[in-house]
Design goal:
This protein has seven helices and six strands; from the N terminus they run βααβαβαβααββα. The chain is globular, with a radius of gyration of 18 Å. It has helices spanning 17-23, 28-48, 68-91, 107-120, 136-152, 163-168, 215-227; strands spanning 9-13, 53-60, 94-99, 126-134, 180-183, 202-205. It has a single domain (9-134, 172-193, 202-228), classed as Undecaprenyl pyrophosphate synthetase. By secondary structure, it is an alpha/beta fold. 41% of the residues lie in helices and 15% in strands. The structure holds farnesyl diphosphate.
């Protein structure tokens, strides 16, 4: 059932694959493999519950520092995920958008991502955002460079710059800002994820380890979100009942 006061954009920090593996006496990579299964469940749950935009933090700019065999395994899982899920995305009319420093990813992954983005670009209702080689600070640096260049060549007057314009230069330019950020595994950090875009997002900290994440926990997050009052700096009395504002 689609509930009232639904977030349009849910962004998830998928955490706890390693701990899940350890708890089950399995290698870390098995935790990631089970994490990829949770990604598929989550994608279905989002669509089934009427969430139109889902962004998943799949690989951060810092994740290159993990042991090489783990990085390779994550890239292999991503490759398999894209190969297997492209027909699903097409069938369920979900657009894929990658956010992050694309060109530093392995060439074979870039090719798959380009193929999947091109094949799904005409879908307008549902979007899956995959954060790959992503970090908020690098994103803001990249946006600042592009803005400075636009100003230098006379395409942009710095005096006209506001958040609405600035956000167009972020990797997430075409997506609405997240309404709800979920982090799994009981950790309570934002870890360089969508820092600017999440300025007014509600945060749901789940104790579930990512490989165990399922529709029931997704719905718990949606229910918690529905019960929160988003004020955007206003007093409770100033809020018009049941108004779901976008960014101020
Ligand atoms: C955090 O768990 C998770 C990651 C660094 C990567 C997320 C990857 C997946 C969910 C699987 C592949 C993704 C796709 C889209 C196919 P952790 O390893 O930091 O866990 P820990 O903190 O318990 O060690």
């Amino acid at each position: 059932m689609i509930q009232k006061n639904l977030p349009q954009h849910v962004a998830i920090i998928m955490d706890g694959n390693g701990r899940w593996a350890k708890q089950h006496g399995l290698p870390r990579i098995e935790g990631h493999r089970r994490g990829a299964e949770a990604v598929k469940r989550c994608l279905k749950a989002a669509q089934a519950n009427g969430v139109t935009h889902l962004t998943l933090y799949a690989f951060s700019v810092e994740n290159w520092n993990r042991p090489q065999d783990e990085v390779d395994a994550l890239m292999n899982l991503l490759d398999r995920f894209l190969r297997e899920q492209l027909p699903e995305l097409m069938k369920r009319q979900i657009r894929l958008r990658v956010i992050g420093r694309y060109r530093e990813l392995p060439e074979s992954i870039q090719a798959r991502l380009r193929e999947a983005e091109a094949a799904t670009q005409h879908f307008e209702v549902y979007t899956l955002g995959l954060a790959l080689n992503y970090g908020s600070r690098t994103e803001i640096v990249d946006a600042a460079r592009a803005i400075a260049e636009a100003a230098r060549i006379g395409d942009l007057d710095p005096a006209d710059l506001d958040y609405g314009t600035l956000r167009e230069y972020l990797y997430t330019g075409e997506m609405p800002d997240p309404d709800l950020v979920i982090r799994t595994s009981g950790e309570s950090r934002l870890s360089n994820f969508l820092l600017l875009q999440s300025a007014y997002a509600e945060i749901y900290l789940s104790r579930v380890l990512w490989p165990d994440f399922d529709e029931a926990e997704f719905k718990n997050a949606l229910s918690e979100y529905a019960s929160r009052e988003r004020r955007y700096g206003k007093t409770a009395e100033q809020l018009v009942p049941s108004t779901n504002l976008t960014h101020p």
